[in-house]
Amino acid sequence: MGKIKTIGNVAFIGCGAMGEAILKGILKAGLLAKEDVRVGVPTIVRREYLTKQYAVKCFEDNKEAVADADFVVLAVKPQMAKTVLTPEFAKAIPAKATIVSIMSSIDISMIQAMIPDRAIVRVMPNTPLAVGAGMSAIAHDTMTSQKALETVKNIFGSCGEVVVLPESSMEAVSAISGCGPGYCFVLIDALADAGVMAGLPRKLAIQLAAQTFAGSGKMAVETGLHPAQLRDQVTSPGGTTIAGIHAMELHGVRGAMYDAVQAVIARSEALKGNK
After folding, report:
1. The pTM is what?
2. For labeling, which of 39, 74, 155, 175 is most exposed (least CB within 10 Å)?
């Protein structure tokens, strides 16, 4: 599969689980050649692993990694932003480069303060991206060209679904799809526990719970029906499913989702220093 010429050279700064998932997705999709990827990671063990696994060039010095980059993917933890995005690093980034940040709680204005005079795209992906089923929301500044935006959409589209939104929506997106897999895994674990309590073997209970969540999500996406309509399709009058839903409502499962989203937004604001 040939590479798309508009991608150019891509530098990853940081390449943990999420960064590696993106790297894997774009290589698997044939969006660029391995020789066009440069990765900046501090540890030798991680550099050796990425070099062996993906045959990409790895550097200890981030300034070397971004040399001649067309796109710079910032995949470090948000707590490390000020440590990594130094003035010296910012100067090393080519003027032509588009900055692509997947750092949660770090908004475009904060990145602009650390890396001025560069086009900036902020992306909120989630961990199912690692299995090609991610959900990524994209926001961008006024310096970002349409061509660069389409390239970023292609990059993250290779790992799942993408939407382009105003940055004002990004914190809510983070609380829904960014953190959502965490909520789902808690619920899968709880449903599997309930299955074990009902007498099922642990492995089978997890398989049943996980596939039920996966299939239900796929059904919601592909049918386009409101979740309440899909719920009604499996909820017979006076039947077993409505009895289970009633028990969930009594225990405040719906309210817990409201509170989880609000807690994420509040924490995100705190991390930005706004509260």
Report:
1. 0.88
2. 175
